[in-house]
Amino acid sequence: MIQNKNNQVNLNNLKKVTVEILGEEDLIKLLTESEEVKHYIGFEISGMLHVGQAIATALVIRELQNLGIKTSIFLADWHTWINNKLNGDKELIKKVAFEYFIPSMKLALQIVGGDSEKLKFIFGSDLYHNNDRYWATLVEVCKNLTVSRVKKSTTILGRQESDDLKFAMLLYPPMQVADIFEMGCHIAHAGTDQRKCHVIAREVSNLMTINPLKSNKGDIIKPIAIHHGLVSGLQAPAEWPLPEDINIEEFLTKYKMSKSIPNSAVFLQDSEEDIKNKIRKAFCPEKEVKYNPVLNWVKNLIFPIQNKFELQRDAKYGGNKTYYTYEEIENDYKLGNIYPLDLKNNVASILIEILQPIRKEFEKAEKKLLTEEIKGARSR
Question: Which of 122, 124, 249, 373 has the greatest number of C-beta atoms within 10 Å?
Fold first, then answer.
């Protein structure tokens, strides 16, 4: 646990890789008083992992581990099935969970400096099997929600409230809430696009009688919600320039890195050539810093791993320069001291180096077959 000289918990490094902590004072109290603090993040098993999921998540896990917090990764096979990912093929979902997601997330944590041996993985079907308490918890969560509130929360599935939703999709948000209580996790974590579900969990926590969330002292508590920022997709926005008063975090929910738009994302197993090509084509307006996907990657992926940015370029364009804060590179880019192509080339080279251990592992013959099978599965 990281504490300062006054024996106070120091969350500064955690805040560098997150945009919000709902219940910050509760977190500090738990870290100060409890023997064990448990954290979880859940994943739909919905195809290949991109850096916006795996690396952004791993950076938060690393900082939570540094605070002495235990992390579980929830492999949400039922949620995947409900959301019709991987064709809704339950056997394929299980195979991808165990043979792809687990080793990929372990490697992602290793390359950002975390301890993969301390990760715990929980498979949804194992949590739910012969578990009357879970299903009772789900019903109790549902009893404290209106249909309207649940429909507004279905955006966490990547759906719109106005969509013609299957009824099963309405089960998804309350199931995600029930997961928190059943696993007894003090901290629920995700990107900001999952915020609605975590807010519901905090609101119903005082109403839960079957399976309330408790501290190690036995006190009923609200789950703490930690959200990391969404990593931008590389595609150009439909509207440019953006309105002056636009909320960038809300905008990023629409233009986040996405599996459904392959060229918007770099996947963990992408080849060096794929990474170069995708970033070379990225939206990266000259001198633009308010919304610039390539700068967004520098801020959210590269600086938190390397604590610096080494710009390599020809002497006639300014020569090499090392930046030790993101603000320095943003300022130079805004002034036109860094050209978009130089920024893109350097981001691509650095990402290629960072992802090399994962790429090397998945070049093995059996792993290649698995990734091809995942790529070939159609998600509806």
Answer: 124
